[in-house]
Amino acid sequence: MLLASPAIAGADEPVLNMDWLASGDPSTPISFNPADVGDHVPGDDGSTIFTGSLLGDTWDLAWTTRARSDASGSYLDGVLSIINLSTTDDQSFSLETTLDVPNPFGDTALFDLAASIAVTNLQWTGGASLGTTGDAPIIEGRADSATIASLFEPAYALEALGPFGSAVDSAAMQALADPMATIGLLTSFTLSPGDLVTMTYVLEVSPVPAPGAIALLLLAAASGRTRRRRAPAQDENAP
Amino acid sequence: MTCTRLTRFALALSMLAAGTASAETYGLLDISSSTGFFDTINVAGIDVTEDGVLFSHQVADDDFTVAANYLGEPSNGVLGGSLQVANASANDIEFVIGFVMPLDDFEPGFVNWAASVTAALTGIDGTVRSLAGEPIWAASVGGTLLGTMLLDPFELTTTGLGTTAAEEWLSGSLDWNGGDTMTIRYAFSLSAGDSVVFGGALGFVPAPGAVALLGLAVITGHRRRRRTTGSAA
User: Fold this and answer.
1) What distance in Å separates the CA atoms of residue A176 and residue A146, rounded to the nearest whole number?
2) What three-state secondary structure class fits B2?
3) Counting runs of H as helices and runs of E as strands, what totals does chain A give?
4) Nearest CA among A54, A55, A78, A76 for reference residue A67
5) Residue by residue, what is the 3-state secondary structure of B199-228?
6) How many whole angstroms from its chain centre is CA B176?
7) Residues 6+ apart with CB under 8 A from A225
8) Is there a contact between B99 and B186 (Cβ–Cβ < 8 Å)?
9) Are B201 and A40 within 8 A, CB to CB?
10) Any domain includes B229
11) What is the pLDDT of residues A163-188, one digit of tens each?
């Protein structure tokens, strides 16, 4: 285990912070630097990988998060596992991981956000469900605490049926943002009692090199919409 | 090296058996990789619910990280949770990772079981794939194979930056001779600079007759409570 915090070890290591909230635990929210709580190792690609876990009276949280930030852009991904240890109550959880951007780009930035979520029924009875909490989407990509991109909008629900069953879903999107000092990944959801959610998410922020790139992005978005419109039409014609 | 590894695993298994005799419950996390890493780790369980024991452990090597988090019920034959693996190196790495949970005494006999596995990959042009001739997921009780999922050839990929996920579900029955362990084993290759999480659960499912009896007991309990309330009023 490396004990040095990135802030002490040098500017090359990314500076991360995590904010964790479990609705059934009055001792939350808690805020911590994952470098101080678990282990972290440098990756060969210039990133740093943080891994660790925390246990509360009503929850268990484990993470593996990779971060890097340089002149070419900032990258933040996360692998999370959360168990609702309450055997009787739904519980709402949220985790925000924030990464400092040491060299903010001067121009507009492109946000690439993608996520996969899985919910598992840890019992032989009933099922498991994961859903949005209030008006918050399940996944948000943020810049300076403002939401730039979001996935699994309300009211979204994912249900796993049957004994020890699981269900998965994936989504992705792109957006544009102004220059920023921090980027963040926020996940918020409600989970049924005694069940497990695992998720992976990734956010890459890179400078948009020229106005032509914005046109390309709009073209890609328009093309995507056309494809989505065509898909149902094909289904309707199917035998 | 193989002999040494087997010896260490056998030693750890004997420690696991010793662990089950004491108040504390120990699981075993067995990790080997194509980078030459191998280790078998005793993971102390923490009582978190009436029947539930949490097993949690992280390993940070120069080339990868592994985080195992399992919620087990040794008295009911239930094991669920996740395995997170991140490849920190510049090369693909092959992993074989097993988690063994001790079981309380189960009478030999006919058991029904069900299981699911999820795999979610994140990264840039990432790939997680099965090893030649091996399923990614295999489970056993007392040394008897229960089932396999994500069979070879299995591959999950992202094109460019992204995430992707898959899940499978399986159930079956087993005429079981008894045993004192429940094991989930993962065998896979993970691309450089990417991360994967395997989730899911495995457990015994009471036979329909037992479920009917349980339902009857619940209904009887309800009636008794109703009668008690009525007479109190």
Assistant:
1) 12
2) helix
3) 3, 15
4) A76
5) EEEEEEECCHHHHHHHHHHHHHHHHHHHHH
6) 19
7) none
8) no
9) no
10) no
11) 999 999 999 999 999 888 999 999 99
Question: CA-CA distance, B195 to B150, in Å (whole number)?
Answer: 17
Report how many domains make up chain B. Answer: 1
Give the Cα separation of A239 and B168 in Å (integer): 28
Contact across the interface for B54 and A66, Cβ inside 8 Å: no
Residue corresponding to tokens 């911590």:
A32
Q: pTM of whole model > 0.80?
A: yes
The answer to whether B207 contacts chain A (CB < 8 Å) is no
A:179-198 residues touching chain B, CB 8 A cutoff: 194, 196, 198
> Is residue B48 one of the residues assigned to a domain?
yes
Given a contact cutoff of 8 angstroms between Cβ atoms, the answer to whether B226 and B124 are in contact is no
Token digits for A217?
A: 């992005």
Q: What 3-state class would DSSP assign to A218? A: helix
Q: Which residues constitute the domain of residue B121? A: 3-220
Residues from chain B contacting residue A47 (CB–CB below 8 Å): 88, 193
Complex prediction ipTM: 0.85
For residue B60, give how far its alpha carbon lies from the nearest alpha carbon of chain A (Å).
6
- Amino acid, single-letter form, for residue A70: D
User: Is B216 part of any domain?
Assistant: yes
If you ran DSSP here, which 8-state letter would residue B68 be given? E
Q: For chain B, what is the radius of gyration of the CA atoms?
A: 20
- Residue-wise pLDDT tens digits, A70-116: 888 899 999 999 999 999 999 999 999 999 987 777 778 999 999 99
